[in-house]
């Protein structure tokens, strides 16, 4: 393993953990697992529209970064002998 592979793997681990936390921070839309864990009884004072949009942007950006890292690690594994 070279330094780039290790760096990408560590970055993947950190982004995976942060992405999991960000997904859990999203407001439940009703029905499904969010209601089972108490998401259905939260009031509308939890987050404003701007905060929710920013959370969406950050989550999508990190998810795209996560996907790119997965593809890069696959390419390095396949062609980086």
Biggest sheet statistics? none
Cα shape: elongated
The DSSP helix count reads: 3
Mean pLDDT: 83
Counting DSSP E segments of at least 2 residues, the number of strands comes to: 0
Q: Report the uncertain regions.
A: none
Domain unit count: 1
Please tell me about this protein's structure.
The structure is a single chain. Helices cover 72% and strands 0% of the residues. It is mainly alpha-helical and 81 residues long. The chain has one domain (3-79). The N and C termini lie close together (10 Å).
Furnish the topology, listing elements before pairings.
Elements: H1 3-25, H2 33-36, H3 49-79
Helix pairs in contact: 1-3
Keywords:
3 helices; 81 residues; single chain; elongated; 0% strand; mainly alpha; 72% helix
Offer a quick outline of the entry.
By secondary structure, this protein is mostly helical. Helix content is 72%, strand content 0%.
């Amino acid at each position: 393993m070279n330094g780039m592979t290790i760096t990408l793997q560590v970055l993947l681990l950190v982004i995976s953990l942060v992405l999991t936390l960000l997904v859990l921070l999203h407001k439940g839309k009703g029905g499904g697992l969010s209601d089972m864990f108490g998401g259905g009884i939260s009031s509308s004072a939890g987050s404003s529209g701007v905060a929710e949009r920013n959370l969406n942007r950050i989550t999508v950006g990190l998810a795209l970064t996560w996907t790119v890292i997965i593809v890069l690690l696959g390419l390095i594994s396949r062609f980086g002998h």
